[in-house]
């Protein structure tokens, strides 16, 4: 279940030297194709392409043995594109975690120029998702990086106006949001309730915060299990 994967997921930056198993690669390609076709995205699984993370200049030494990744691309004129990529990219991540794969959102520490041939003229490459197999425990380097980049997570009260008197489904949704990854762990999405609706919003639409918005929308939806989102900033979650 995606809810179990949500609790199991951790950003992984060090990978084993193992090719993706055929059944895992096929599964990812099928899911990517489905999301692309239904929602106008251009996500692409690339395997055996390690050079975009090699060298300090590309990854600042934060990634090791990354040979497979998912390119997160889409029409640059679609105002909801980053939001949708965040939502469906995180869904792919949780589905990969269910299959015991490691993953990590990567916003800028990779060689973007090497991937230009994959990007269509009217599209933009927003980020990538590193994916592969990892050791059961994080390496010491991963632990140090996690400690350096992660700070105390925000409370539900800091992220929203949801209170102890709010419905349980709203509280459950916000608890799931606390588990969502975000750029530099800033947790920039602000939630507010209005009757049976929840609004999610970020302050900066020209940044990675819109991807963070999509990621947290999925987490809230998995936790709340009561309704669906409408794209936008603010995005609107309506109870069924």
TrEMBL record:
User: Which domain of life does this protein belong to?
Assistant: Bacteria
Q: Which segments constitute the Putative nitroreductase TM1586 domain?
A: 2-224
Instruction: State the InterPro entries in the record.
Output: Nitroreductase-like (IPR000415), TM1586_NiRdase (IPR029478)
Q: Name one Pfam family in it.
A: TM1586_NiRdase
Q: Which SUPFAM superfamilies match?
A: FMN-dependent nitroreductase-like
Which Gene3D superfamilies is this protein grouped with? NADH Oxidase (3.40.109.10), putative nitroreductase (tm1586), domain 2 (3.40.109.30)
Instruction: Select a single GO molecular function from the record's annotations and give it.
Output: oxidoreductase activity
- Descriptive protein name: Putative nitroreductase TM1586 domain-containing protein
**Which source organism does the UniProt entry give?**
[Clostridium] innocuum 2959
